[in-house]
Amino acid sequence: MRNVDFSPLYRNAIGFDRLFHLMENQSAKNTSGGYPPYNIEQKDEHHFRITMAVAGFAEEQLDLTQNENMLIVKGERKAEEGKNYVYQGIAERDFERKFQLADYVTVAGASMENGLLHIDLVREIPEAMKPRKIAIGGSQLIDNN
C-alpha cells in the first residue's frame, strides 16, 4: 500500500491543515486491506475529489452515506449461483471504506465512469468563521471581498 506524503503541502501553511491530517490518519487506520484502491485529489483550496476503483460494481450496488464528518462508501455484490469457475482472479467481494472528513466538508456529488467512482467534496466555511480585517484605530470591520 502506498503512503501519501502531504508534508510539501504543509510548508504553505502555519500549523497544519486538519483535512490532510485526518486523511493521513485514515490511511494508517484502514483495515480493509487496501480494497478498493482510491486516490484523493485536491482541485483547489476548497474542492477535493476521491476516486475509487470499483470495477465490476454497478451503481445500484454502491451506497454512499455522509453522517456528520464521516463518509462511508459500501459496495455489496449478490452471489451469482450456477457459475463454476475454473479460475477466479477478479475480486468479487463486498467492501466498506470510511473517510473522516474535516469540518465544513460536504459531498457535492458522485459519478461513475469506466469503473471509477468519483466523489466530489467541497469545503464551505460559514460566513461567521471566515477571517475579517479589523481597521487599526477603529472598531469597523473591513470585508475581505
Would you give an account of this structure?
This protein has 145 residues and is mainly beta. It has one domain (7-142): Immunoglobulin-like (Sandwich), CATH 2.60.40. It has 2 helices and 9 strands, in the order H-H-E-E-E-E-E-E-E-E-E. A 4-stranded antiparallel β-sheet has the order 1-2-7-6, with no helix packed on it. A 3-stranded antiparallel β-sheet has the order 3-4-5. Residues 11-16 have low confidence and may be disordered.
Keywords:
145 residues; mainly beta; Immunoglobulin-like; 3-stranded antiparallel beta sheet; stress response; Heat-shock protein Hsp20
- What's the story with the biggest beta sheet? 4 strands, antiparallel
**Which second-level CATH architecture applies?**
Sandwich
Order of secondary-structure elements: HHEEEEEEEEE
Report the count of strand segments. Answer: 9
The radius of gyration is: 20 Å
- Number of domains as seen in the coordinates: 1
* Alpha-beta classification: mainly beta
Helix segment tally: 2
Q: Strand percentage, roughly?
A: 35-45%
Classified by CATH, the class is Mainly Beta
Give me the secondary-structure topology.
Layout: H1 7-10, H2 18-29, E1 38-42, E2 47-53, E3 62-67, E4 70-75, E5 95-100, E6 105-113, E7 116-123, E8 133-134, E9 141-142
Antiparallel strand pairs: 1-2, 2-7, 3-4, 4-5, 6-7, 8-9
Pfam families: HSP20
Protein name: Heat-shock protein Hsp20
Family: Belongs to the small heat shock protein (HSP20) family.
